[in-house]
Task: inverse folding
């Protein structure tokens, strides 16, 4: 094979495939070059004037390396890894760094094994990180616990790229013994440190953490770059940081910036893509396209030491995107290792989901009663206030419950009966409720509504499989079953999008401010590691103080 590659590079024999007359995006030299791209044995063998067994005239289209998503939770797309591949490959993504901590919090090793098996037979490089925080904090009730000892065992048993996002930053800074054992077990460690600064950030960096995708401001990104972090610019469904963080990119620190989506709903993936959307938005904001493509393709491959990937250069993997416009909004062809895997937005491969038997029927709660969800308003008790376009939440005090919704978090793994409750400002749900078994990261039941009766109906409709339920005027008006861990569907992504669109439509009918983002925010209101106040199964949690609030 090597001899064939070299001879094709020399032009002594025809390449397997030559992409003719392209505008090559050269991220290594920060330029665009006209020419042919020759491919043999899955490798790029040369750029210039070549002949191939197969030749494709690109007619001046742009040639880019495949896009890389630096940090993604596949589960947030509500489909299996194989279905996720079918969605993102036509949008130009050929490599992802996936942290399966959602399914790990529900089903532990069985969940991890399912994700690994289901991603094997698709033309997408899926590099899994071993979840570092299962549960996310010692205050969470998840379906599984992965401690330091189990971390070592799983790292030796499976081919994980490294340790997933270390959300327990108090554990790092406080030198918790189990956290220390985890940090010492892996070469590469992902970060999660929203609003951590100063000496605390210095200490967090000394734990061996290499990157962060939680920056919310220019200043935060600059400080973290100076502390040795790579910054993943996030543009997902619930958290959109690209416009702000691109202000921090300059010619000196460009190599430390990449794109990620973190969490993105399926309809948005099919409509606008993931990393292609980041490219389009960044270029539309006026940033240098070559800088943008460097972030989308080459930098993440360097960040994770993925080898000869991420550029159109001799000896590099032939993961290639052909796009008619520089904004990557008109992707015509996608090649994986030199094989055409998508054309004009359509995947050219079929997928079959792996066995789901070990990851189904994961909802273990008794029937919920209206009285379990009742909550009396008290103006002296705090209300969690949502912020549009952000996962950051604050506390406020209100004079009345006008405009407020009731929110509850119900433990669903061990049958404890725990129910945390509070009022929430920012959605104003009328005559209905939304319940779902998506509640990052422990994935207990999250429910929000106008009153306890509608909430009761929504929760009980979830059954043992889980999913999302919308109730209006005490009637179920939309339901989506998520049989895989209560967070992913067994269905084709097109069917999932259809079902989810109906959920979103009905959710919007309950609230004047309702949107697709509403469901994502509901899923994150229980994540006890994103400032400032969240709702766990034991009540309101003060993230900054890292303790439950006594009211």
Result:
């Amino acid at each position: 094979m090597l001899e064939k590659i070299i001879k094709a590079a020399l032009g002594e024999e025809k390449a397997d495939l030559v992409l003719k007359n392209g505008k090559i995006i050269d991220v290594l030299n920060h330029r665009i070059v006209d020419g042919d791209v020759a491919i043999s044995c899955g490798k790029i063998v040369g750029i210039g004037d070549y002949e191939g067994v197969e030749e494709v005239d690109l007619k001046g289209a742009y040639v880019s390396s495949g896009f890389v998503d630096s940090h993604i939770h596949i589960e947030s797309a509500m489909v299996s890894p194989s279905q996720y591949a079918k969605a993102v490959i036509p949008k130009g993504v050929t490599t992802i760094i996936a942290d399966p901590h959602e399914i790990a919090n529900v089903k532990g090793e069985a969940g991890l094994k399912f994700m690994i098996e289901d991603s094997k037979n698709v033309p997408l490089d899926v590099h899994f990180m071993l979840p570092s925080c299962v549960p996310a904090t010692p205050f969470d009730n998840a379906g599984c616990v992965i401690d330091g000892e189990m971390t070592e065992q799983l790292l030796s048993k499976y081919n994980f790229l490294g340790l997933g996002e270390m959300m327990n930053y108090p554990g790092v800074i406080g030198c918790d013994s189990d956290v220390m054992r985890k940090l010492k077990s892996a070469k590469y460690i992902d970060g999660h440190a929203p609003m951590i600064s100063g000496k605390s950030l210095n200490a967090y960096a000394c734990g061996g953490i290499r990157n962060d995708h939680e920056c919310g401001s220019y200043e935060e990104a600059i400080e973290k770059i100076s502390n040795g972090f790579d910054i993943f610019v996030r543009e997902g469904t619930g958290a959109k940081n690209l416009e702000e963080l691109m202000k921090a990119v300059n010619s000196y620190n460009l190599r430390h910036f990449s794109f990620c989506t973190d969490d993105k709903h399926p309809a948005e993936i099919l409509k606008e893509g993931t990393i292609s959307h980041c490219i389009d938005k960044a270029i539309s904001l006026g940033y240098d396209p070559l800088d943008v493509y460097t972030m989308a393709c080459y930098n993440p491959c360097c960040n994770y030491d993925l080898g000869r990937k991420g550029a159109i250069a001799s000896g590099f993997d032939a993961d290639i995107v052909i796009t008619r416009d520089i904004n990557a909004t008109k992707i015509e062809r996608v090649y994986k290792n030199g094989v055409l895997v998508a054309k004009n937005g359509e995947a050219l491969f079929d997928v079959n989901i792996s066995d789901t038997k070990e990851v189904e029927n994961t909802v273990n709660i008794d029937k919920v009663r209206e009285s379990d969800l009742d909550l009396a308003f008290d103006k002296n008790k705090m209300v969690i206030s949502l912020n549009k376009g952000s996962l950051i939440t604050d506390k406020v005090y209100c004079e009345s419950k006008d405009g407020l919704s009731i929110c509850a978090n119900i433990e669903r793994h061990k049958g404890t009966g725990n129910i945390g409750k509070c009022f929430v400002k920012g959605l104003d749900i009328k005559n209905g409720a939304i319940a779902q078994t998506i509640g990052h990261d422990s994935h207990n039941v999250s429910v929000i509504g106008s009153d306890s009766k509608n909430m009761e109906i929504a929760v009980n409709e979830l059954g043992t499989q889980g999913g999302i339920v919308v109730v209006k005027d005490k009637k179920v008006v939309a339901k989506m079953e998520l049989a895989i861990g209560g967070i992913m569907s067994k269905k084709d992504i097109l069917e999932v999008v259809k079902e989810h669109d109906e959920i979103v439509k009905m959710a919007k009918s309950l609230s004047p401010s309702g949107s697709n983002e509403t469901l994502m925010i509901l899923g994150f209101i229980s994540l006890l590691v994103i400032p400032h106040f969240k709702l766990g199964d034991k009540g309101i949690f003060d993230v900054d103080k890292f303790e439950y609030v006594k009211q």
